[in-house]
Automatic annotation (TrEMBL):
Protein name (record): 2,5-diamino-6-ribosylamino-4(3H)-pyrimidinone 5'-phosphate reductase
Catalysis: reaction(s): 2,5-diamino-6-(1-D-ribitylamino)pyrimidin-4(3H)-one 5'-phosphate + NAD(+) = 2,5-diamino-6-(1-D-ribosylamino)pyrimidin-4(3H)-one 5'-phosphate + NADH + H(+); 2,5-diamino-6-(1-D-ribitylamino)pyrimidin-4(3H)-one 5'-phosphate + NADP(+) = 2,5-diamino-6-(1-D-ribosylamino)pyrimidin-4(3H)-one 5'-phosphate + NADPH + H(+)
Enzyme class label: oxidoreductase
Protein species of origin: Myriangium duriaei CBS 260.36
GO annotation (BP), single: riboflavin biosynthetic process
UniProt keyword terms in alphabetical order: NADP, Oxidoreductase, Riboflavin biosynthesis
Bacterial bifunctional deaminase-reductase C-terminal domain mapped to chain residues: 30-265
Cited Gene3D superfamilies: Dihydrofolate Reductase, subunit A
Pathway where it operates: Cofactor biosynthesis; riboflavin biosynthesis
EC number, as in UniProt: 1.1.1.302
UniProt KW DNA repair keyword: no
A GO molecular function held by the record: 5-amino-6-(5-phosphoribosylamino)uracil reductase activity
Family statement drawn from the similarity comment of this UniProt entry: Belongs to the HTP reductase family.
Stored PANTHER family: 2,5-DIAMINO-6-RIBOSYLAMINO-4(3H)-PYRIMIDINONE 5'-PHOSPHATE REDUCTASE (PTHR38011:SF7), DIHYDROFOLATE REDUCTASE FAMILY PROTEIN (AFU_ORTHOLOGUE AFUA_8G06820) (PTHR38011)
Length: 271
């Protein structure tokens, strides 16, 4: 059996006000948590394509606890290719880890505009799906004819490709329309989603027109610099009406909590 993690309700108390709630507005959009682990120089990984462990044991368990509290977990294709991730929840007591069924297991969502991620039964997501310890992914793509064997494998385990709507003002770059994507997730029954990365996905979600879609931010900061050449979270600059540069984004309702050697920063995006 693969690793089993534990994170108790008492350890999780500091997270409570940042966790998904059923939204009372009529937006029909899921609760969105932006969450990732970063170095002191804002890097998620040592270099593009390099899987890099930043979280210590306790903050890793916290991430898995967060997975158990969300209906879906979203990454970009760059991360799928680099990490061959499991994207399941390996917390003791969650479906497949001490209880039957898939209760507590989030749906992996992968943004793959041109369907370039190649996968098979041995890919970690499918290994977990096969063992009843995770779900098969939904892959958002603009490619109208992804490989037949990929379609078949997804179908076999309950995953699928979903057409990705692009920003109508920027069709050339196939930039995703975040609101349309989130509306579709809601329609699929996913009322909360944690966006884990990578850097391009996070930088895109932090663009001024998208920030309002983020309900909560939970960032693990590891006490190390990764150095130049890393995969960096650094959203586009903003300017005010006079043209002066202002911060790209600000957090409010901020709370810091130490877990092992890491610190976890929670907040909400300031409007
Ligand atoms: N430390 C952490 O918590 C995490 C680290 N990572 C690391 O991040 C690295 C991957 O990051 P990236 O290279 O930035 O890849 P990524 O995972 O952000 O995927 C980038 C791809 O996603 C698609 N994409 C991104 N934004 C888009 C948009 N607005 N519209 C349409 N398509 C869009 C494009 O196809 C793009 O090539 C990996 O090395 C991985 O290990 C990933 C997740 C979490
Ligand atoms: N929270 C966190 N800390 C790190 O140090 C990480 N490298 C990541 N990466 C994210 O987790 C995914 C791997 O998940 P599995 O353990 O394979 O289920 C990886 O793809 C990133 O999204 N996260």
């Amino acid at each position: 059996m693969s690793e089993v993690l534990s994170f108790s309700e008492s350890e999780a108390r500091f997270l409570e006000t940042y966790l998904p709630i059923e939204k009372k507005d009529a937006s029909k959009l899921p609760f969105v948590t932006l969450t990732f682990a970063t170095s002191l120089d804002s890097s998620l990984a040592l270099a593009p394509g390099v899987r890099t462990q930043l979280s210590g044991a306790q903050s890793k368990a916290m991430t898995h606890y967060l997975r158990s509290r969300h209906d879906a977990i979203l990454i970009g294709v760059g991360t799928a290719i680099a990490d061959d991730p499991g994207l399941n929840c390996r917390i003791d007591g969650v479906g497949g880890y001490g209880s039957d069924g898939l209760d507590g297991q989030p749906r992996p969502i992968i943004i793959d505009p041109s369907a370039r991620w190649t996968f098979n039964e041995q890919s970690r997501i499918f290994t977990f799906a096969k063992e009843g310890r995770g779900r098969a992914p939904y892959i958002f793509t603009t490619n109208s004819s992804p490989p037949a064997e990929s379609v078949e494998l997804l179908q076999k385990y309950g995953g699928k490709y979903i057409p990705l709507k692009v920003d109508p003002t920027d069709v050339e770059h196939r930039r995703l329309d975040w609101k349309a994507l989130l509306e579709r997730l809601w329609q699929e029954g996913h009322h909360s989603v944690m966006v884990e990365g990578g850097a391009s996905i996070i930088n895109s979600l932090l663009e001024p027109q998208n920030q309002a879609l983020i309900d909560s931010v939970i960032i693990t900061i590891a006490p190390r610099w990764l150095g130049q050449g890393g995969v960096v979270v650094s959203p586009k600059r903003r300017t005010d009406q006079s043209g002066a540069v202002i911060p790209a984004s600000l957090l409010q309702q901020v709370r810091w909590h130490q877990l092992g050697e890491d610190v976890v920063l929670c907040g909400t995006i300031s409007p």
